[in-house]
Write a structure and sequence with these properties.
With about 650 residues, this protein is an alpha+beta fold. The chain is about 30% helix and about 30% strand. The model has no long low-confidence stretch (mean pLDDT about 90).
Length: about 650
């Protein structure tokens, strides 16, 4: 086992909560930087890109190193705007601890709740820092109650008496469960033991320490840094080499950088790296601190670094035996890229593919039928940033067509699917059960096939084929989601089963099952927060009904009304402009990813998209059987009778 000497700490927040300001304060107070920058002065240590400084938001995740006493931390500052949340999610995967920053004035906003759910999914121990407590309207009791209600009732405020934790804090901590309370009343546990117990509870996400302060005006920062140093623990890792890739970048010289968290073993320059079907060598290992780096000869488990020399790595993927990444956040809009200058389409596509390496959610596609480029996006702010990036990087002027909705498909109930692939000298048959899943669950895979029926190596092969591809639904050709696919049975031939046979059988089994299922079209929803002067509340409520929105009872103040809820992206996407017009610019409309729900106008969408499943030969539901030495096609509705597995 390897004991890491480096703790990776992530700073996450809703935009404008003060995340970058807190980062600057931590780096300055720990001596990592000599001068504390400010967002409004455009001189912060980590927001170095001209786009970030001009807009005052974090677009790209970056890292910095600092020490608390002898304990080393790598701090990762993540994007706060919802349009860049996929990069934030990839960064979460490499964290040992996280800090969620909340504005003491605005409180917990929708994107903060999304961040919290992600930290919960990836099991990241979490600190909470409530910022801007020196502002009017910041009420400590209201905030702590909101944290307990929306995040966790295991959240407790950290209180010190000079340099030691207060007795009230230890008592509040002990009251979290009966075992601790009994230990507290016995009175034989000393101060250092309570610190150790608290550290272990935090590591297991059984407690969440809350700090209050103001990053801009240096209130509560010293105590927060003390808490970071006192409550964090180094991690043990395996000796076997593994790593998580969380970012791909290209430096100014064009070198391709693969940013990783080392999750096992010791890695050296010139080591061979095996991933997917690639075998490549590490040319250089870089440790970044802001926009500067040093090269080192080796790194070990727990380190954050960048490798050069790897040409096919992908953000979100893993190397070695580490757990594969399945994103919870995905784009809901697609747009066409319009090239405005004389750049030819081949060069434009190549440039966009380079950007896609760094932002894989863009899913750049070239449509041969009309020689156009399409990309997927989270929101319109992302398009503005993308224009700037492409202009700065490639001197290429682009614009975008109108935003189109990305639909998804699922099923209702349960269905069995069969796929048979038996052209001459090939053989594979797969039986899968497809079950309706929970909303937002993606595609889950189970194995209920007996090894007496099929060798274990074929089990693994079929499961990998289920997960390797984005399967299409049959209503609109949109991606399949929110289903559980279970391997029930399979059949191979001792002599004729070859590589790729089970891939064909598996794809056909899924498709044949969908043909028999009750298919459901899903559309993306926004969670929204609309704040307007009270005289416009009636208009907002009327609009919510018109736009098929679901909303909570309005929250009223003396002058404003706040309406929260959810609604279809396709109907709400232009509402900020509409609200600005009728309120004369006084309305504030904020959207956050709300997941996918059943489409409100399924028939209309199916007709508009016009997907012809019979012409989609790459996603066929037919099977191939063999008779008299020749393969022949069997349509999906006859496969149940022709199948060999009974």
């Amino acid at each position: 086992m390897i004991n890491s000497e480096n703790i990776t700490l992530g700073i996450l927040a809703h935009v404008d909560a003060g995340k970058t300001t807190l980062t600057e304060a931590i780096l300055y107070k720990t001596g990592a930087i000599r001068k504390k920058g400010r967002v409004d002065h455009k001189d912060t240590f980590l927001d170095t890109h001209n786009i970030e400084r001009s807009r005052g938001i974090t677009v790209f995740s970056k890292q910095a190193e600092f020490y608390i006493d002898e304990k080393k931390f790598t701090l990762i500052d993540t994007p706060g705007h919802v349009d860049f949340s996929p990069e934030m999610e990839r960064s979460i995967r490499v964290l040992d601890y996280a800090v969620v920053v909340i504005s003491g004035v605005e409180g917990i906003q929708s994107h903060s709740e999304t961040v919290w759910r992600l930290l919960e999914k990836y099991n990241i121990p979490t600190f909470i820092f409530v910022n801007k407590m020196d502002r009017e309207g910041a009420y400590r009791e209201n905030i702590i109650n909101s944290i307990k209600e929306k995040f966790s009732d295991k959240s407790i405020e950290v209180c010190y008496n000079e340099n030691t934790l207060s007795d009230d804090f230890i008592e509040n901590f002990a009251s979290l469960d009966e075992e601790l309370l009994e230990k507290y009343f016995e009175g034989d546990t000393d101060y250092n033991e309570w610190i150790e117990i608290f550290c272990n509870y935090l590591k297991e996400r059984k407690v969440f320490p809350v700090f209050f302060g103001s990053a801009l005006n240096d209130i509560g920062i010293d105590l927060f840094i003390k808490g970071l140093g006192s409550f964090t623990l180094n991690k043990l890792y395996d000796d076997e080499k593994s790593a998580r890739i969380f970012k791909i970048l290209h430096d100014e010289q064009g070198n391709r950088l693969t940013f990783l968290k080392i999750t096992g073993g010791i890695w050296n320059v010139k080591d061979t790296v095996c991933y997917d079907d690639n075998i490549e060598k590490i040319n250089q290992i870089r440790i970044y601190n802001g926009d500067k780096f040093v090269t080192v000869q080796s790194v070990k488990a727990g380190d954050i670094c960048a490798f050069t020399g790897l040409t096919e790595t992908k953000a979100g993927k893993s190397i070695g035996n580490d757990v594969e990444f399945k994103s919870l956040l995905s784009p809901v809009l697609s747009v066409k890229v319009i090239v405005k200058d004389d750049t030819d389409i081949v060069t434009a596509l190549r440039n966009m593919k380079i950007i896609e390496e760094e932002e894989p959610e863009l899913s750049v596609v070239f449509r041969k039928e009309n020689s156009s480029i399409e990309i997927h996006i989270m929101g319109t702010i992302q398009l503005e940033i993308l224009k700037d990036i492409v202009k700065n990087r490639f001197n290429m002027d682009i614009d975008f067509g109108p935003c189109e909705i990305i639909y998804k498909e699922t099923i209702r109930g349960s269905v069995m699917g069969y796929g048979h692939f038996e052209p001459l000298r090939h053989y594979a048959e797969t039986q899968l059960r497809i079950d309706e899943g929970e909303r937002g669950s993606g595609i889950k895979v189970n194995d209920e096939c007996s090894e007496d029926l099929l060798d274990k190596n074929y089990h693994r092969l079929i499961i990998s084929h289920i997960l390797e591809k984005e399967h299409k639904g049959i209503l609109t050709g949109s991606p399949l989601t929110d289903v559980s696919i279970t391997l029930i049975a399979g059949k191979a031939h001792l002599k004729h089963t070859e590589g790729g046979d089970f891939r064909e059988a598996t794809y056909r089994a899924i498709r044949q099952g969908l043909e028999k299922a009750e298919n459901v079209l899903l559309e993306p929803f926004y969670n929204f927060r609309i704040e307007v002067p009270t005289e416009y509340l009636g208009r907002v409520i009327s609009d919510m009904t018109r736009l098929k929105g679901e909303f909570n009872p309005p929250v009223m103040t003396e002058t404003t009304a706040i309406v929260t809820g959810k609604g279809p992206v396709v109907l709400f996407m232009d509402y900020p402009l509409e609200a600005a017009a009728y309120s004369k610019g006084k309305a504030s409309v904020q959207f956050y990813s709300g997941g996918y729900f059943e489409c409100h106008n399924t028939d209309e969408v199916i007709e508009k998209i016009g997907y012809d499943k019979e012409r989609d030969i790459e996603n066929t539901s037919s099977s191939v059987f063999c008779s008299h030495g020749a393969g022949y096609e069997v349509k999906w509705f006859d496969v149940d009778e022709a199948r060999h597995i009974k």
